[in-house]
Amino acid sequence: MVVLVLVFLAAAGVFSLGVGLWAVCSHFITADIPAGTGHPVKLRFLGCIFQLLVTWGIIFEKLRICSVPQFVSFVHDLQPLKKDPDVMVKDLHFGTIPVKLYQPKAPSCTLKPGVVFYHGGGATLGSLKTHHRVCLRLSKDSGSVVVAVGYRKSPKYKFPVMLRDCIVATIHFLQSLDAYGVDPTRVVVCGDSVGGGVATVICQMFASCPDLPRIRAQILIYAALQGLDFQSPSYQQNSNVPLLTWSFAFYCLCCYLDINPSWQSTMKKGAHLPPEVWEKYRKWLGSENIPERFKKRGYQPVVPAPVNEAAFLETSVLLDPTCSPLITGDDVVSRLPEACIVSCEYDLLRDHSLLYKKRLEDLGVPVTWHHMEDGFHGVLNTLDLGCLHFPCSANILNAMTHFIKGL
């Protein structure tokens, strides 16, 4: 029996080593690590760790133990939560939706700004724990009451569950500002990645809600804002840059919107939409709306392939403004509050921010824009992450803080 146990342990060790080597080799073969991030070794290490987690997740999913997102999220949530003596943190529920409330302890004779924060993670990853450091620092540095929303995620919960959870939590907060000492004229919606997309949608939806306090501003950190065009300059330049590659972004899209993964190449070529749709939205999505300096690292305009009718029928949900808020009509976008937009040079979704910035400015909506020349998707989550901290994360937080204080 002892021999069998030793043999099993040895086999498990060899298998684990093999998985690790496979993940690392796969990363080195496929990943693009830009020197412009300033810390390419750190980014490569983070990329390897993420690739390893995904590889183990795939194995467990094949064994029907758990899904890839469940395993990766489980590991991400193992990190201990940081405490700050200057911020009071409470775990609450708005109805059945879990939220984390961050309140500065410093006494104040005036009402504080309020921030509703929607975390990123492609609607599959991320949690109240993964973004705890960001919300803690945001509350402390800006003197704001921050409410982080713990929405339900895919693949278990499909569209529009995540959005509905965020809408309900936001309404609950707006209806109880007095209880949290929040100034009703200084409420901000904020999010990173898919959370930035949620913040955009909620801002658009609530622009015509007279029964609720008006949202004062929106803060969008490398937000995901459209699912139509996958051949813009940033998609061509950053398709293999960690921590968001094209393949993983598409995986998250399929999980959330229940789209068959077999359409990946079809959608990348633009064959999921008919010519009249491309023509209708070219005025907002066309590469001519992106400044030339963002095309210098390589860009070749791609004419969309002939439409695949089956793909169009199965992916037409992407034309819903709640999925692609970048294509919401001018009548709505023109009434939005001012925005703070943060884009990152080495981000797959960089052009989403650039295009939305232009749309807002063209319609007279004030925009404060910060472009992180050394930034990549997910860099904000390295804030206060010890030796894996990227200075860019602190720069983004400082931009957010400065914007809120100026309201």
Detail the topology: elements first, then pairings.
Blueprint (H helix, E strand, L loop, with lengths): L1 H29 L9 H23 L5 H9 L10 E8 L2 E8 L7 E7 L13 H11 L2 E5 L11 H14 L7 E11 L1 H12 L11 E5 L11 H5 L8 H12 L6 H5 L6 H11 L23 H7 L14 H4 L4 E9 L3 H13 L4 E10 L14 H15 L2
Parallel strand pairs: 3-4, 3-5, 5-6, 6-7, 7-8
Antiparallel strand pairs: 1-2, 2-4
Strand runs, count: 8
Percent of residues in helices: 40-55%
Helix count, DSSP H or I runs of 4 or more residues: 14
Computed Rg: 21 Å
Question: Which class of secondary structure composition applies to the elements?
Answer: alpha/beta
Percentage of β-strand residues: 15-25%
Instruction: Please state how the strands of the largest beta sheet are arranged side by side.
Output: 1-2-4-3-5-6-7-8
* Parts with pLDDT < 50 across at least 5 consecutive residues: none
Quick check: average pLDDT?
95
Q: What composes the largest sheet? A: 8 strands, mixed
Gross morphology is: globular
Helix-strand pattern, N to C? HHHEEEHEHEHEHHHHHHEHEH
Termini separation comes to: 70 Å
